[in-house]
């Protein structure tokens, strides 16, 4: 029998995110290297590599539209989870996996510069023997015993990608967006609370709060394990840390990872006002063309 808590934690005050994240990795020199450039017709796809730590390099795809007349808005495109640890950045640029996940490619075709790195444990960041096994709990546990969290590392890496993105002359650093589905949709709620350069964020099929996650069919993803956090806070408190970020909560009515979307929207509406929108679809855990077009229009309107 499963148990699902639905009450909002009591005794909450203003959230200090770093209280729960623990120590954040130090910034290092990016030492950017461009590994390849491929002309894809309406845009150029670059594969770049940069440092996120003293001994840690990350690969990412950057898609740059042709015929830019000036600095363009840019979007961080976070890949999904789906237990496909062999996939990451390649899926969101349309090189592998589900074509409905190729939103970094489609945004580039619409005039946005996009960046898509591998998250920890995915694609080139997966060090398991078969390159496809779940190493997330190792990455979490080996940090927790040292007083650190996996989420701090993940958010640090997003911020580092934005450091690189905003250093490019073809990017308007005042118009930075974020888009993600599933795992990426969850990160779309945390990243703007950590890095205020994100002016607009789209969370698709990833808005389930902690209080609705205590059931066997969902549980807590390793990346979002913060000891003690849910005793006092939940996602609406994270979103309350947004500065001027506009947010689209996009959710499927039959998607378990979208549970609580209406409650979350109502709660954050008191904080964000007209900067938050809700899109509900009679669907499950999918990212259809119509859903993506709504997300793209939101980013276009808000950036």
UniProtKB/TrEMBL annotation:
Belongs to the AB hydrolase superfamily. The keyword Ribosomal protein does not apply. This is Alpha/beta hydrolase family protein. Transmembrane segments: none annotated. Keywords: Hydrolase. The lineage of its organism: Bacteria, Bacillati, Actinomycetota, Actinomycetes, Micromonosporales. GO terms for molecular function: hydrolase activity. InterPro entries: AB_hydrolase_fold, Dienelactn_hydro, FrsA_esterase. Residues 91-296 form the Dienelactone hydrolase domain.
